[in-house]
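Re-run with default settings, no changes from the original entry. Doing this only to confirm the output is reproducible before filing.
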Amino acid sequence: MNVSLCPLLRLWLLPLLCLLAFAACTQDDATPGDAPVEVRLAVSADREETLPARQATVDEEGDAHEYMHELCVFIVDADGIIERSLLPDLSGDADAQAGNLQRWTSYPILLTPGEKTLYAFANWSTAADEEWTQLVHQTEGTPFDVDLLNRIELDNPAAKIDFANQSYIPMAARTTATVTASTRELSIGLDRLVSKVRLTAQTDEGIGVVSCTFAGVASACRLLGTEPAGSRTLSYVPSAPTEVNGNYVFPDFYINATYGTEPFTVTLVTDENAGTTYTAQTARTDVPRNSIYPLNLTLGSLVPNVVVRSWVSPIGNYPVEVETDFDADAFKVSLAEGSQFEFSIDGIDGATSASDVTAAWRLPATTPDGVVFDGTADGTSSDALTVKGHLTTLPVGSTFTLGVDVGWTDGGKSYARHYTITVHITDITDAVFKARRRLPAEWLWMD
């Protein structure tokens, strides 16, 4: 039997069928990603990057106490609003209390799907910065203060690290992520805001290294970003080195992350020649955060050729030049009491093609009265290569030191070293005249 719907019934059912079809279509278009997603947040302290030093860049695990002690994390949505703020209580975590917490994972949290910006901060108490403290205490549902973040500059954080008093290395990080229905974990790695210098020095046999100064480090660093901060005026003096297989190894030391185009200056004090000081500038001009800078110093055998001349003045006669015995190995020389002297730098021994040789002479503040540089009253002379002077009241048997800063260029490299010359005062009657033609008055004096 054929059954057909009457036209009126068909008209009544048509809107209902349309509604059912629309509902089915709407249900098909709905995606599970619109619902909140349960995820965990994982935070870790990144490995330290060893800067290239004639080898490929490698990463290195941090040492003890170089990890998290306190932690704060913000998850910010695409509109810049803080969706979640995590400030875990780590007071009961033994690793965190010792600055050794390498990884922290949150409890499950609900996040809406979409683009997120993650900010993580650790060990801010060390920096003792009011603005950073204000930043980590922002609350959920408020705009994340990007302006505050961008203007924070930490004043010399490296100097405030003190593991013994729970002042651990400040850290910060920022990353982006997309939360979808399949997301189960978000991760972010913290960067230490300081870097580590690993310094060694290799010298010729018999030359000992006394101390080192590493200068040109930034006085401040930004919380995030790689723009220069502060001024590059800080110097670091690491602890005394130990000798290992002929190399002098200094203990690692922390410096503020430093950016810019200026080189660092390294000064090395040795026991050579009563205290020769070597100064050089690095090819590297920056040391990024969370990095290790291996700096290997090699002290070559290049030394200035020091020429010493001296004259004594017999009563009523012209000055007469006498022999001087300059010990180039010990940087020592003897001058007769009351004599005139002249010290000159005549090239660089051992250099292939030394050029642009300069010298600046100076008397230490502890020099006794009785030594005078001609033409100066302050005990210094900036004459390029030669200094002249005379002795007045120094007694026989006394000594004084004369310093000279020598610079030169050789093989495309610039050198700058400080040398100390020790001068011994001898009896004028022991002076030996140089073999040369003399004026008649000089012969009479000798007779």
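Confidence is low (pLDDT under 50) at residues 1-32, 53-57, 437-447. The longest helix spans residues 7-29.
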